[in-house]
Every structure is written in C-alpha cells, then in structure tokens.
Amino acid sequence: MNFILAGLNIDRAPVEALECVAVPTHSLKEHLERLATHAGGGVILSTCNRTEIYSVADDVEVGVRQLREYIDAVPEHAGVGGISEYIYTLSGDAVAEHLFGVTAGLQSVALGESQILGQVTRAMQAAGEAGTVDPALSRLFHAALRTSRKIRKETDLGRNRTSVSSLGVQELQTTLGDLKGLRVLLVGAGEMGKLTARALRRYGADDIVVSSRSMNRGKILADELGAPQVPFENIKDALIEADVLITCTAATDSVIMADVIQGVIDVRPDRLLSVLDLGMPRDVDPATADIDGVNLISLTELQARSAESWELRAEAAAEAQGIIDDGVRRFKERLTGIDHEPVIRTLGARMEQMRREEVEQTLGRLDGLTEKQAVSVEKMTRSLVRRILADPISFLRSEEDSAAEAVQKVFALRNDNDDEDDEIE
C-alpha cells in the first residue's frame, strides 16, 4: 500500500485554475463521495491557495492516474482551458514529507500560518465522516498534525504567527499608510472574516462596517467588533462611503461585479477605493482591476509579495526541517511496525511455544528441583527469548520492505508450499 497525492497550488498554477478545483466546505461531502467512486477514496484538502487529494493505492501508477482524472474533471467554469499541466503528483515517502510541510505552514502564502492546522484537521474529519479515509492515511494526517504543533511550539513559526488575512492587511497598510480613520467594509463573517477583523484592529483600523450573506453570522462579528452591520443587498450604498473593501466569503462565484465598483467610482471619482480579495474562488470580478481609481489586491499579489521574502522562508524552513524529518521517520517506523505486527505476534508465539516445550522436557529430567529453582528457570528462559527476539523485531520495525518475508523464512513461520498454494488459487 502506497501513499499518493495529486493537486494544484498557487505556486504552480494561476488563480483561474485554482478557482476551478476549489472545493467549498458545503460541497465537500459530495466531492468525497464522488472521489470514492472514481478513485477509491481519500482526503481532499482545499484552502485559499491549494487543492490536494491524498489517497492510498496498491498500484501507484493507476492510483495517480485516477486522481489526476478526478481533478481534471472537476472544472465547471466556462472559458477555462484544461488544467492538467498544473497538476503535480507525489507518491510514497514524498507524500508524507509534503503533508508534514503543508501542515507546518511552510508552503502557505503566509509562512507558518496557524489557520492551516484547522483546515487539515477538518479535511481529515470530513473524510472520516464520509468513510473515505484509509486507516494508514488517517495515521499520516494525525502524525503531520502532531509534528506541526511541535514545530509551532519549538520554532519561530509559532512565535511569529501570521495568516493570509494579516498578510493582506499588512499589504493594505503598506499601500495606504495608516489605516486609522479609513472606513473599511468587510464582506464575510466566517473564520477568515474573523481573522481579518482582528488583524484590522491590530493595525489600527477603527472604522469597520460588517456585511455578510448570513445576517446572523454578520451580527455576531459586528457585535464582537462593536461595529455596524450592513445587509448584503445594500453593499453598493455602503461602498460609496468606504475607503477599503475586504472580501472573504465562501461563495463559489464572484459576489461583487465590476459594474458595481464602476458605479461606486462614478459617484465619487476623486476618492480611491482599495480592494483586498481574500476569497477562493475570487469574490471580486477581476475586471475591477482595470477601473481607474481602484487598487485591487488578490491572493496572486500576496503570493508574489510572500515570494520576495525567500530568505525568511529558507531560514524558517531550515529550522523546522529537522523536526519534520524526525516526525516523518518516526511515522514510518510506527507504520511499518503496525504492518508487521501480525508477523511479530506469530514469531513471539512460536518462540514461546518452543521455550515451554524445552522447559517442560528439561524439568522432567531433573529430579529434586525446588519450586524456587523452577521459577528461576522460567525467568531465565523468558529473558533469553526476549533477547533473541530483540533484533528480529527491530528489523521488522525498520524501513526494510522485505523484513517480514525474511523473518518468516529464517524462523520458518510460513509453510514451504504457501507460494505454490497461492499460485494454484
């Protein structure tokens, strides 16, 4: 059984391609069911900057091809060509190393972002509820999460927490200077909306207006901020008074079209409107970027800014890589041990049977042996067996693929005719 992976991310694919394969939370169950039918199941991880499918396969080539075909069939947006050229695939140990890095935030737009922990956890839980996650794959995700928490505890990634939303607010501050006194219209009150609101407060924004397609969720965030709430259908009116628009909804299509923005600019031609679109798919019509008086910042721009800090990425990656390498090694050891556990139990049972037979024969030939002496013989032989088994068990729990077969042959745990019987069947 091999781990396999196929996916796209913002490092290698344009945002237009990512939008096509993004899987919103409300349709994740449906996608998992389709994945189970097409490729036998797996875990779908879809965030603002990546969509990846993790699975297992006996035949790596066939499994990877099925995952590629599944992703290639997802796009439903008109006008977008094939995305095959952007799909990357991994198999074996490379999948574990990749997932550990993703979960640690080393491959996020915002280096070391903590939000990815929750996203990976929810992806795994959704697959578990849908019955599409293999036990070994589940163990891989749990190991990646444990290692990620350790990295955040022991390295600078945990001490310098950031997120895509805070990176976006930083970019706004760089562009506009002081955010204090500027009116910010925040559209979206989900998890990303909450993170963005907190980042705005940290960077001095003191005039925030909240809008959400869910009035209840919008009210909760507005109350938390002590800010007014605007009904979603009244966004155009609210935009006329805004200096900054930030969107972070879970919509599957644009929620603010270019003609709406143009209408706002026409009413207030001498006032700049800065737009930060954190949605995936994008919330704001990309044609908005061509409107005079509008400065549009999307995930593409944030990714470009993040890539400029390659020295910080390299330093942080180096600090965390040792922990990742150790975590992957430990995971492989545990997984190998679990896979070979039946052989270990059989070997232990065989040696214990031999020990008992020899002890009984020896004690039967000895006359006048006291109970204390008999107990000593038992202890001594049990200790001897444990010492004899130590190396074979260590070998079985190593990374050697042929360990189980070798131990079975050496200790005669298989019948000589097993292979012949298999061929006859």
What can you see in these coordinates?
Helix content is 57%, strand content 11%. By secondary structure, it is of the alpha/beta class. The chain has 3 domains: 2-161, Beta Polymerase, domain 2, CATH 3.30.460.30; 164-308, NAD(P)-binding Rossmann-like Domain (Rossmann fold, 3-Layer(aba) Sandwich), CATH 3.40.50; 340-367 and 397-425, no CATH class. The strands form 2 sheets. A 5-stranded parallel β-sheet has the order 6-5-7-8-9. A 4-stranded antiparallel β-sheet has the order 2-3-1-4, sandwiched between helices. Helix 9 links the parallel strand 5 (183-187) and strand 6. Helix 6 crosses helix 14. Mean pLDDT is 86; it is low at 416-425.
CATH topology-level name of the largest domain: Beta Polymerase, domain 2
Mean pLDDT reading: 86
Q: Strand portion, in percent? A: 5-15%
Structural class: alpha/beta
Count of helices? Answer: 18
Low-confidence stretches: 416-425
CATH architecture of the largest domain: 2-Layer Sandwich
CATH class of the largest domain: Alpha Beta
Strand order in the largest sheet: 6-5-7-8-9
The helix/strand series, from N terminus to C terminus, equals EHHEEHEHHHHHEHEHHEHEEHHHHHH
Instruction: Specify the helix fraction band.
Output: 55-70%
User: Nearest-angstrom radius of gyration?
Assistant: 29 Å
The tally of domains stands at 3
How many runs of DSSP E, i.e. beta strands? 9
Q: Major beta sheet, specifics?
A: 5 strands, parallel
Query: CATH superfamily of the largest domain, called what?
Result: Glutamyl-tRNA reductase, N-terminal domain
C-alpha termini separation:
22 Å
